[in-house]
Amino acid sequence: MQPELKNWLNKAIGQKLESVLALVHVFDGEKNVEQPDEIDLQFTSCGHGLLRCGSDGATIVWNDEGSKEVDIGELGHFVIEDFASQPTWATVMGKTLVGADLIQSEGMNSGVKFLFEGEAWIAVLNWGDELYVFHEMPEWSDDELTFTNIKNHHP
Fold first, then answer.
1. Which runs of E-coded beta strand occur in the chain?
2. Looking at the 3D structure of the chain, how many domains does it have?
3. At 4, which helix (H) or strand (E)?
4. Which residues contact 151 (CB under 8 A, 6 or more apart)?
5. Among 31, 96, 102, 111, which is 20 to 30 Å from 75 by CA?
6. pLDDT tens, 45-74?
7. C-alpha distances in Å from residue 38, one per residue of 23, 58, 87, 118
């Protein structure tokens, strides 16, 4: 695991989720909000926590720089969208993060499961070089994924 990701997650535990931004691809006026390119989470007093697919096509990568819009010419462009009101994220906005699990697939760090107060959770996962966000485990995940708790904190 990237030590910076673990440090950020440990700092975020006990804090409220304040903002969720996503970098989404737009082509011919159609936005692909189902599979964002990056997810930028902001918890109280923690700054940006940006998650995206690693260049190896399997791992999750974290940084604290925040998303930037990009024009890729004929292939469209990437824009920043506020995801706070998206159905998946709306259920956890303003809730306190109480824990986090590192998600591993085939021994690689592929994602993070964010555990919120009230037993709500959201997972961000690199699956086949696509970023997936879900709040219910997909059927295919039973044998494919393992979860390692980073830290639990109950305020």
1. 17-27, 30-31, 38-43, 47-53, 60-63, 70-71, 77-82, 97-105, 108-116, 121-126, 131-134, 145-152
2. 1
3. helix 3-12
4. 9, 10, 13, 99, 100
5. 111
6. 888 899 999 988 889 999 998 889 999 999
7. 5, 14, 17, 26
Beta-carbon count within 10 A of 106 CB: 9
| pLDDT (tens digit per residue) in 68-111 | 999 999 999 999 999 999 998 999 999 999 999 999 888 889 99
- H/E run at residue 6: helix 3-12
**What is the domain extent for residue 38?**
3-152
Give the torsion sign (CA, 110, 4, 116, 130).
negative
Transcribe 7-34 into DSSP letters.
HHHHHHTTSBEEEEEEEEEEETTEE--S
